[in-house]
Amino acid sequence: MVTRRTGNSQCPIGGPPDDLFVSYSSVTRTQLEQFEVLLDKNSSETGLDKFLRDNLSVLVNSLKVLKTGYDGAWIISKQHIQASMSSIQNGLIPDFIVGGCNSCCFSWFVLHLDGAHQKILTEDNNFLYFNSTVNMAIGQVIEYIDYCAAAN
């Protein structure tokens, strides 16, 4: 992988712009505690979205679970996507696209937010299923990925 330097990290040539770089290690305990309070209070999608846009390092730290982002992380918010991709239907715009770079590759993740009060699963006849809200969100993300794949 051919890279260019971005801050203290390497970014693939042709990768995301430097101004979308978010430091992986800049998250504070206070930010994580504030985010936990929002989740505990069942905050709305709007409240979670505003907090994450104002505290991008919290979102970047979710890449740890996916074992990427150690060599750099970038976040593209809905505002950037709408400005640069105005031809996409409103229903297809994700809340965030998060990119993480590690020693072997660069990975992108499409994120759709809902309020913390939303239940993820529903039970029917002793079986657990994704509820309709989650199914719609999954469908939206798949449509966006299909759109991006067709555009390349």
Summarize this structure as a short list of keywords or feature phrases.
single chain, 152 residues, alpha+beta, three-stranded antiparallel sheet, two-stranded antiparallel ribbon, 36% helix, disordered N terminus
In short:
This protein is of the alpha+beta class and 152 residues long. It has helices spanning 29-40, 45-54, 56-60, 78-84, 132-151, and strands at residues 3-6, 9-12, 73-77, 96-101, 106-111, 121-124, 127-130.
Structural write-up:
It is a single chain. This protein is of the alpha+beta class and 152 residues long. The chain has one domain (3-118). It is built from 5 helices and 7 strands; from the N terminus they run ββαααβαββββα. A 3-stranded antiparallel sheet has the order 3-4-5. It has a two-stranded antiparallel ribbon with strand order 1-2. It has a two-stranded antiparallel sheet with strand order 6-7. The protein is globular and about 50 Å long. 18% of the residues are buried. Residues 1-5 have low confidence and may be disordered.
